[in-house]
Each structure stands twice: as C-alpha cells, then as structure tokens.
Write a structure and sequence with these properties.
Layout lengths: L1 E3 L3 E4 L6 H8 L15 H15 L6 E8 L4 E10 L6 E8 L8 H16 L4 E7 L3 H9 L3 E12 L2 E11 L6
Parallel strand pairs: 5-6
Antiparallel strand pairs: 1-2, 2-3, 3-4, 4-5, 6-8, 7-8
Bound molecules: coenzyme A.
Length: about 180
Amino acid sequence: MEIKTNRLLLRDHVKTDWKDIHEYASIPEFSQYDIWGPNSEDDSKNFVQSCIESSLTKNRFKYDLAVFHRREKRVIGGIGIRRSSESSLISDLGYAINPNFQGKGLATEAVLAMFDFAFNQLNLALIYATCDCRNIASYRVMEKVGMIKVGQILKHREIKGHWRDSYRYEVLSPKYSK
Ligand SMILES: CC(C)(COP(=O)(O)OP(=O)(O)OC[C@H]1O[C@@H](n2cnc3c(N)ncnc32)[C@H](O)[C@@H]1OP(=O)(O)O)[C@@H](O)C(=O)NCCC(=O)NCCS
C-alpha cells in the first residue's frame, strides 16, 4: 500500500518506524489534545505493531499509514482513515506531523492524497474528523482541504482527566453529492 505525493510517500508501516514515530509521540504537548500519549517506547512499538497487523487483515477497512518524507528518507508523521467495518462507506480521519516538519503544508498534502484514495479507490461516501476546539493547526488543515465544519460537540470526549469540546468537520465524495 503506497501513495506518492510531491514530497511524501504514504505507506504501510514497517517495524523500524517506531523510532521516528517515538521522536514526536513521546513529547507531552504533541498529544495534549488526544486520547493517547505521551508514548513510552513500548507504546510506540505497540502502535506500529497494531498498524502492521491491521494492514494484513483480509477485507481491510483501516488504513493507518506512515508519512514518509521522500527527500529526508524518514517517517515524519502518520495519517489514517478508519471505517467501522468493511461495509461502511463512512470513515474517520486522523493525522500527525513531527513538529520539526510542521507549517510546511505536509499534513494538507497527505490529507488530499488520502481523499483521492478514499473517494476514487475505496469509493467511500463521507470522511469526517473531530478535533479539540483549541487545536487550531488541526482545524486549519481541515479547512484547507475543503472539509466543512458541521458543528461543535460539547464534552465530546474525556481526554487526560478533562472533558474535551470538539469541532466536527466532514467532506462528502463528489460521487455522492448532488
Ligand atoms: C495538526 C498537524 C498535523 C498539522 O500539520 P502541518 O503539517 O503543520 O499542517 P499544514 O502545514 O498543512 O497546515 C497547518 C496550518 O495551521 C496553521 N497553524 C498552525 N498553528 C497555528 C496557530 N497556533 N494559529 C493559527 N494558525 C496555525 C498553519 O499556519 C497552517 O495554515 P496556513 O497554511 O493557512 O498558514 C500538526 O500540527 C500536528 O501533528 N499536531 C499534533 C497532532 C494533532 O493534533 N493531530 C490532529 C489530531 S485531531
């Protein structure tokens, strides 16, 4: 499973990816808005292992891919589209980029490539994502890729002992919209 963009290769994980992932996943502020982290080394290794296992399942319905920087020749982030089952046409979207590579449009580039894959290869109908209302970088990415804010969910999830208010964004496949 490989998707090439100008600067990136979105590909299935390999075992050794955990080190590059751990570089940012172990930083407490990096995952401040998320349910996971900060990662121990074992957390990062287990994450990579679970991605590899899910990539090997028959009738795959989750694509958690490594964001590999083609020039730097290293993993600089992750991106995932995850359906709840193989028959679902609706998918969740998530992404992360190492702070040393942020602010260069790389998350936007990765998300647009995933949309192309999701809508044209998997024929999905709708992709949605939620983020903490304070996570400006995350919702800026959603706006830049053309997702529409459909609402604010109060007390959406409990994150590290606090209730998180979230924005929900969506994008509909051109094939499914009138
Ligand atoms: C969200 C994340 C993936 C964005 O990655 P990125 O490669 O920097 O994203 P891009 O460069 O494509 O776009 C980021 C946009 O947010 C803007 N931005 C970032 N921080 C900002 C801030 N504090 N205030 C205003 N705008 C901000 C950038 O300027 C850019 O917008 P622009 O192109 O209009 O200038 C990255 O910040 C990250 O990994 N965060 C930690 C994990 C996370 O929160 N993931 C999302 C979970 S829902």
